[in-house]
Structure formats: structure tokens, C-alpha cells
Amino acid sequence: MITELCILFFIVALAYSAAGFGGGSSYLAILSLPLWAVDFQLMKSTALLCNVAVVTGGVYHFYKSGHLPMKKAWQLSLVSVPLAFIGSYLPMKQATFFLLLGIALTLAALLMCYRLFFEKDEPVIPASKSNGIAYGIIGGAIGLLSGMTGIGGGIYLSPVLRLGKYDTAKNIAGLSSFFILVNSIAGLAGQAAKHAIVFDVKFAGPLLLAVIAGGQLGSRVSAKVLKPKWVAGATAVLILYAGIQMLLK
What start and end residues bound the annotated signal peptide (predicted)? Predict the structure, then answer.
């Protein structure tokens, strides 16, 4: 089982890292399939840890290349970080978790389909002014959802920023990467505060190594070798399937 999961996690990290994402939604979709029968607390902890492992390198890469405007990064994260902590700290039954995760995954799949079929590859020209308070509130709402479900939130933030012409495409990727990192850490802190972090070295250890390798490789060469949109399309199908299955149950 662990070998198959490592391969899948490696592919997800490889594909997502070039766009500044951690792949949390896909990790959760994979782990939620009945084939693996993974405990829901272990799912949340593992997905967040994998997010941190992937986007840490991405944040460094984007910052070093000048595509991470820190003022905007903190503007988006100031409200989201405490709300991600609160969302993760809230007591949640397994049925409630899977209901929320089903909704979150279905929405994530629809957003990925939008990116694949409707989002144009035209250069984004940032708007002359952006409403920092409004984006901060949006970031906070996404942070709360990310804390409750174990998803970093970048997959929701990125389309919002692109539609609002918040910044250039590369800067938005850098901002999404930073957003995922700080919210995933806040989510883990919330789990730790209520003693709910579940870490199985034999299970999560190999997966962390797989996503670190995939993330490092993806941030450097995947955009040149892979067709990211088609990889995203295949991933969207998986996420949509997992989300609908949870909602039906």
C-alpha cells in the first residue's frame, strides 16, 4: 500500500509545486478513497505535513527569484492564520469532517476545471489599487476552511487573486505558496493544542520523502517537461470523485 501511495504523492507534489500549491486537496482525496482505509485524523495531519514539506521549498524559490511580495503575503495571511488555528482546534466528529471535506474537495475540483478550461494564459496586469481589507477577509474565510479540513487553501486563493488582478501570475503563485505554508503550520498547531496530531512514522515518513522529492523536482523542471493543465485536469477528476463519494455517504 505505502509504495503505491508514495508514487501518487510524488506525482501530485511534482505537478502542484510549479504552480505554488502544496497538493493538500489531492493528498486528502487519495487518502479518503476506501481502498486505503486511513483514519481521518491521520489524513488531516499527514496532508498538512506534506503541504509544509512541499511549499517550504517553493516559498524559498519564489522569494529568492523576487516573486513573493511580503507585504501582500502578510496582508492575506494576517487573519487567515489565527482562523486556521481555530478551525483546526474546533472539536469535530468524523461524519462532520467528511461532509466538510466532501464540499471542500468538490469546490476545489470545480475551481481546477475553471483553471483548465476557462482561465486564459494571458499575462495578468495587476490592478492599480486592491482592497486589502476585502482580500484579508477572504483569506480569513479560506484559512478557517483550511484549518477545519486540512487543506492549505491555495487552490481557493489563487483563482480569487487572478480574477481580482491582485498581482502578476508568478507573484500570485508565490503568494499562494506562502499562504499554504503559514496556514498549514497554523492547522498543525491547532491539532497539537488539542493533542490530535496523529503521526505514524512508518506511514507518513515515506510519504513526506516522496513529496519533498516531487516538490523539489517540480519547482525546477516540471513546467518544462509536463503539461501542467492536463495533469491538473486528471487530478480534478480524482478530487471530484472523492468529494462526491463523501457527500453521497
Answer: none
